[in-house]
């Protein structure tokens, strides 16, 4: 390492965020940047660990100590080369990854991990600015054709590697722009869509074919897809949202989170939206059901819509501020998360179960909830209702942000009659192969909803599996 005692001399310094009163008035990215000198000093804090638990924690196996050392030395170009060796899209993960690596950092024992995520995005942005990143087309083409269905992070990663391997790759997307949930699920204040377009333009310049506005299984039937390509990769995501079946569910004013977030992103990017499909939180009392990242995104978007009040509830208990004994370092810390959206103004409640929706003239006016507690019963954690705790939270707009349960089955998956697992995700073997010869699957399609960084890792894995399949089954 360049400075093996850097962590003793330099304290953790984050780039910080734009002022709340400024950022809630626009959709520009919230996070700020450090100057190059400070960023290099932050990289010097990376220790010469005997076991780099940051690397162990990272789903894409980032060579974190190596590129931190190169960053400290000022060799930005080589730092990017090491970073891109394991991660196709560090400009995405550097912005929206929950930084599993920092949870595993040895310095996190004292709650001052290296600013790994921020260092990552600084390296890739410097690489784009300095022109280190240029289109590189394959030296030869194999003549093999691969279809990748779904252009989220898993699909983009798979398509990128398969194209670089020399195959003729077509990336299909049902929406009018590629990017999947990166584009239509994550707000612009966390990930500017210009960042996605920049990468897609690069991939297209390298020979990737991107076809948008085409729903495979509807506009193109499965038989046509199978007959036209040597291999098919399904990365359609886990698009089926978790619903709630209680009295009053049919009342107007209750929406799935992704309909709200996707509509906002489409509107902000200038896409055409029917007036009846516009969902606005302006002047409303918004209740978000679900305490995860999607719920947080709904909070931040509602604040920018100028909602009158925003409340977020979660059925699980409130996490502790500090690690518990049964959740030690270097594992991911299951502690209370306060996002930038929460900082912008939100009432948060935990251990609340939704009993029913109440309304007037067919429109929701509130949600009746009751408190619950989670107890251990014969080795299992079970929920118990606390009697006498029912109350109504006023709301004239409710957003269901309780996660996603499995891929949308109607269309391509049902058309293929592909084998599913017990959770209705597409079943694959260790080689990502489905029950249909020549058809592979990866990302949330296989695992259920997960992190962007895990989706990228899965996309990289399926690309390698498809490469091996083509080399064995398609003689040149």
Topology:
Blueprint: H1 6-9, H2 20-23, H3 36-43, H4 53-57, H5 64-72, H6 76-84, H7 90-96, H8 100-104, H9 116-130, E1 145-149, H10 153-164, E2 168-173, H11 181-184, H12 193-205, E3 209-212, H13 222-228, E4 231-234, E5 240-241, E6 254-256, H14 257-269, E7 285-289, H15 293-304, E8 309-313, H16 340-343, E9 347-349, E10 352-360, E11 363-377, E12 380-385, E13 391-394, E14 397-400, E15 404-406, H17 412-416, E16 439-441, H18 444-447, H19 452-473
Parallel strand pairs: 1-2, 1-4, 2-3, 4-16, 6-14, 7-8, 7-14, 8-9
Antiparallel strand pairs: 5-15, 10-11, 11-12, 11-13
Description:
It is a single chain. This protein is 34% helix and 17% strand. α6 packs across α9 and α14 crosses α15. It is of the alpha/beta class and 476 residues long.
CATH superfamily of the largest domain: FAD/NAD(P)-binding domain
The main pleated sheet reads as: 5 strands, parallel
CATH class of the largest domain: Alpha Beta
Mean pLDDT: 96
- Give start-end ranges of low-pLDDT stretches: none
Structural class: alpha/beta
The CATH architecture of the largest domain can be named as 3-Layer(bba) Sandwich
Instruction: Determine the number of helices (DSSP H or I, runs of at least 4 residues).
Output: 19
Number of domains: 3
Q: What overall form do the CA principal axes indicate?
A: globular
The strand count comes to 16
Query: For the terminal residues, how far apart are their CA atoms?
Result: 46 Å
CATH topology of the largest domain: FAD/NAD(P)-binding domain
Work out the strand percent: 15-25%
């Amino acid at each position: 390492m360049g400075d093996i005692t850097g962590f003793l001399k330099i304290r953790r310094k984050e780039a910080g965020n734009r002022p709340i009163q400024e950022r809630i008035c626009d959709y520009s990215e919230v996070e700020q940047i450090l100057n190059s000198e400070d960023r290099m000093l932050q990289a010097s804090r990376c220790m010469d660990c005997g076991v780099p638990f940051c690397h162990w924690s990272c789903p894409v196996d980032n060579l974190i100590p190596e590129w931190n050392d190169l960053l400290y030395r000022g060799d930005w170009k080589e730092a990017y080369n090491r970073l891109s060796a394991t991660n196709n899209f560090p400009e995405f993960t550097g912005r929206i990854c929950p930084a599993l690596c920092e949870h595993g950092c040895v310095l996190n024992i004292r709650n001052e991990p290296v600013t790994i995520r921020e260092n990552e995005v600084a390296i890739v942005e410097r690489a784009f600015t300095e022109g280190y990143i240029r289109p590189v087309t394959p030296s030869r083409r194999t003549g093999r054709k691969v279809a990748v269905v779904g252009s989220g992070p898993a699909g983009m990663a798979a398509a990128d590697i398969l194209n670089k391997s020399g195959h003729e790759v077509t990336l299909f997307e049902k929406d009018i722009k590629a990017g999947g949930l990166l584009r239509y699920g994550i707000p612009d204040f966390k990930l500017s869509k210009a960042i996605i377009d920049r990468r897609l333009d690069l991939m297209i310049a390298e020979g990737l074919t991107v076809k948008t506005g085409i729903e495979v299984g509807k506009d193109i039937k499965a038989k046509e897809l199978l007959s036209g390509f040597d291999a098919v990769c399904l990365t359609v995501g886990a698009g089926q949202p978790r619903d709630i079946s209680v009295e009053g569910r049919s009342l107007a004013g209750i929406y799935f989170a992704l309909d709200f977030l996707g509509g906002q992103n489409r509107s902000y990017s200038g896409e055409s939206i029917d007036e009846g499909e516009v969902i606005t939180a302006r002047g409303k009392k918004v209740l978000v059901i679900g305490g995860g990242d999607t719920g947080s995104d709904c909070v931040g978007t509602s604040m920018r819509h100028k909602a009158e009040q925003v409340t977020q509830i979660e059925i699980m208990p409130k996490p502790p501020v500090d690690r518990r004994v049964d959740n030690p370092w270097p594992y991911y810390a299951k502690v209370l998360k306060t996002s930038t959206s929460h900082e912008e103004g939100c009432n948060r409640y935990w251990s609340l179960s939704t009993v029913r929706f109440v309304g007037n003239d067919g429109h929701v006016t509130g949600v009746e909830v009751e408190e619950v507690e989670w107890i251990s019963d014969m080795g299992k954690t079970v929920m118990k209702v606390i009697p006498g705790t029912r109350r109504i939270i006023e709301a004239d707009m409710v957003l269901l942000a309780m996660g996603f349960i499995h891929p949308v089955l109607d269309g391509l998956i049902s058309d293929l009659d592909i084998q599913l697992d017990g959770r209705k995700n597409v079943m694959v073997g260790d080689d990502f192969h489905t029950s249909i010869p020549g058809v592979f699957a990866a990302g949330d399609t296989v695992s259920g909803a997960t992190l962007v960084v895990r989706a990228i890792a899965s996309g990289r894995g399926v690309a390698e599996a498809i490469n091996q399949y083509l080399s064995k089954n398609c003689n040149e």
